[in-house]
């Protein structure tokens, strides 16, 4: 079963959420911005994660680069996740709710971040 993840990145912590293709919560936790802890939290789900949305207005480079180095498909959005809240509780579950968001079909301000198009984004 495909899983969809999102993280709302802050200066010292992030809120990570993972849902399945039926919209059911599989994981939700506030984590410190510690690369080892973030990768540890994602590890049990790695093979099933179709994409990870990272919402941040700054300081996102380290996280996106780390996730890409680990083989995750990463999508960057500058659109605040808190504006997308719905009946689900939590910060970033609503981003992945309706998996179309992960691939930019809902929010046009979402970018596929890859080494191939980095020059266009920087």
What does this structure look like?
There is one protein chain. This protein is α/β, with parallel strands linked by helices and 122 residues long. It has a single domain, classed as Nucleotidyltransferase, domain 5 (2-Layer Sandwich). 20% of the residues lie in helices and 30% in strands. The chain contains four helices and six strands; from the N terminus they run βββαβαβαβα. It has a six-stranded mixed beta sheet. Helix 2 links the parallel strand 4 and strand 5. About 23% of the residues have low confidence.
Q: Can you name the CATH architecture?
A: 2-Layer Sandwich
How would you spell out the order of helices and strands? EEEHEHEHEH
Distance between the termini: 34 Å
CATH topology: Nucleotidyltransferase, domain 5
Top CATH class:
Alpha Beta
Taking pLDDT < 50 over at least 5 consecutive residues as the criterion, the unreliable ranges are 81-91, 93-109
Count of domain modules: 1
Biggest sheet: strand arrangement: 3-2-1-4-5-6
